[in-house]
Amino acid sequence: MVTPLPTARVHITLVSDPLAVRAGLLSLLCMAPLCDLSDDLRGTVELVLAEVLNNIVEHAYAQYDGQIGVTLILERSILRCEVVDHGLPMPANLLPPGQLADCASLPEGGYGWFLIRSLTCGLAYDRKAGRNTLVFQIDAE
Amino acid sequence: MNFSASLQDGILVIQALDDRIDAAGAIQFKDRMRELTQTASDRVVLDLSRVAFVDSSGLGAVVAVLKALAPYRKLELAGLTPTVQKVFRLTRMEQVFTIHDRLPLPLRHAN
Predict the structure, then answer these.
(1) Which helix (H) or strand (E) holds A86?
(2) Mean pLDDT across the stretch A98-122?
(3) Which member of A86, A131, B7, B35 has the greatest number of CB atoms within 10 A?
(4) Which of B91, B94, B96 is the best residue to mutate to test the A interface, defined by the most A CB atoms within 10 Å of its own CB?
């Protein structure tokens, strides 16, 4: 029988800057629940969060700076993530499709949402009262 | 971004010494690689064995270097760590780059 990972919750707030994203990710990785996960899973979570947070810095906060809130809850071997910002909404209030371009055309961008969609489930976006909320899950088993 | 570079038997080996190529460092990575690859060589091998993390901006920067070297030279990669390998596999960039498990033996010494 596999012992389930202990329930844990963490919340951090960071400013909309690429260096703050890097520092925020590195501190999250050292805290529960992420510090209890395997190296492989930690790599997956780091990648997904990096893509989500860098998108917010580049697009939602393209015109002004602001705060980003990240909440991670590990419960019954599911990592639930919620990321909140007060930047611009997603275009048409919809998540990008994240289709991978033909690799032979050597695109230098457009990988972010593809990676997020490939590595998460239950992805949902909500825009209310000037607030963007993105939720998703990563299987931590 | 810090690098070491050496030229041996016509192969320019560049090792990335920082442990991440991310959105905060991607432009600097591209600029430094552009400078380092000015050295004439038959082949260019980028040793990523010390890089634990590459995000989509970092991947875009590596692709940009590949494109800048074309058509006369190719960018080869060596020593991908597990999370970096995952990014290249998922985005199918494994099919685009020549990827060596480790730096070819005669070149390991130089770095």
Answers:
(1) none
(2) 91
(3) A86
(4) B91
Write out pLDDT tens, residues A27-37.
Answer: 999 999 999 99
Asked whether residue A136 carries a pLDDT value surpassing 60, the answer given is yes
Helix, strand, coil content of chain A in percent (nearest 5): 35, 30, 35
> What domains are defined for chain B?
3-108 (3.30.750.24)
Average pLDDT, chain B: 93
The partner residue sitting opposite B56, judged by closest CB among A44, A104, A112, is A112
Q: Which tokens in the block code for residue A139?
A: 């299987």
Instruction: Order across the sheet with A131-139: list the strands.
Output: A8-15, A67-75, A78-85, A131-139, A121-128
Per-residue model confidence (pLDDT) at position A109: 85
Q: Is A85 on the interface with B (CB under 8 A)?
A: no
Please give the pLDDT value at position A133.
98
Kindly list the structural domains of chain A, giving each domain's residue range(s) and its CATH number in brackets, ordered by start. Answer: 8-139 (3.30.565.10)
The pairing of strands B53-54 and B20-21 is parallel
- Token pair 């976006």 is at which residue? A125
Which residues of chain B make contact with A21, given a CB cutoff of 8 A? 22-24
Going by the DSSP 8-state scheme, the letter that residue A63 receives in this structure is S
Q: Cβ of B95 and A115 within 8 Å?
A: no
Q: Which residues contact B68 (CB under 8 A, 6 or more apart)?
A: B33, B34, B37
pLDDT score at B102: 83
